[in-house]
């Protein structure tokens, strides 16, 4: 292409903002597409997603279609924008072929894993839950499948052992912002590489139960799960059926029956796993504020020997 490409940007959450800003700093953004406004908070106030709010601040053309399939009006909007290429970043909707075919260079997607590993809605979370030491960003050509298109650019990112989903998302967002500018700067030179289907793994959307502690896991597995669900649904344990939100988990020394409280100190609550033990620094009982674990334990009469409920996922 003899001139810089005109870009349509598809994204919704705050994660996508650094990518939008990087593209806007290097290219002309002719259209921003985000999910529709949604009710938020106790008052259910209709609120735009972060990308839509930022586009409005910048005065960029904005579309928030409720659906993409069989929507000729939206296809006309995209066509009339003059976009040479579209970029998706955490947009949150599957794109039909009729939309994918509109821009001359199609759609590029920023995916937060080293595809074909962790295809799906929650690659950041599942990489942490599975205890991965390395993940990365893939710039791929979007097709009609779920993250199945050919790879255009890919770069690894080591995962720091203390990172939760919050820190990993920040690092990957910055990486994606840099790589998409690189890709857009060389659209004609990109070499698509098909993904190896035999190596594909999946990262489905999280459920509330994905945050429930499995005390029969190892201590490392419990901590990794807590890192992965830190943003949502967060880590949940149970005592006599009552829910407890846990935070600040780390692996520590100790052994006992899974879920058994081994010790209470100012450092936190030590609970046995199937292998090793977990130190819990913060506990939030239902309908109450978070507090230091030892403060909660004193008030709840939790002492060494107390057993937290054992929860196991229901077999499919």
Automatic annotation (TrEMBL):
EC number(s) reported in the record: 2.1.2.9
CDD domains per the UniProt record, alphabetical: FMT_core_Met-tRNA-FMT_N, Met_tRNA_FMT_C
Biased composition (Basic and acidic residues): 307-316
Reaction(s) catalysed by this chain's protein: L-methionyl-tRNA(fMet) + (6R)-10-formyltetrahydrofolate = N-formyl-L-methionyl-tRNA(fMet) + (6S)-5,6,7,8-tetrahydrofolate + H(+)
Annotated Formyl transferase C-terminal domain residues: 206-300
Formyl transferase N-terminal domain: residues covered: 6-184
Alphabetized Gene3D superfamilies for the sequence: 3.40.50.12230
Keyword annotations of the record: Protein biosynthesis, Transferase
Transmembrane segments: none
Residues binding (6S)-5,6,7,8-tetrahydrofolate, per UniProt: 113-116
Region span, Disordered: 290-316
Enzyme class per UniProt: transferase
Domain of life the protein comes from: Bacteria
InterPro entries the record matches: Fmt, Formyl_trans_C, Formyl_transf_N, Formyl_transf_N_sf, Formyl_transferase-like_C_sf, GART_AS, Met-tRNA-FMT_C, Met-tRNA-FMT_N
Family under the similarity heading: Belongs to the Fmt family.
Record function comment: Attaches a formyl group to the free amino group of methionyl-tRNA(fMet). The formyl group appears to play a dual role in the initiator identity of N-formylmethionyl-tRNA by promoting its recognition by IF2 and preventing the misappropriation of this tRNA by the elongation apparatus.
Protein name: Methionyl-tRNA formyltransferase
Organism: Deinococcus caeni
Organism phylogeny: Bacteria, Thermotogati, Deinococcota, Deinococci, Deinococcales
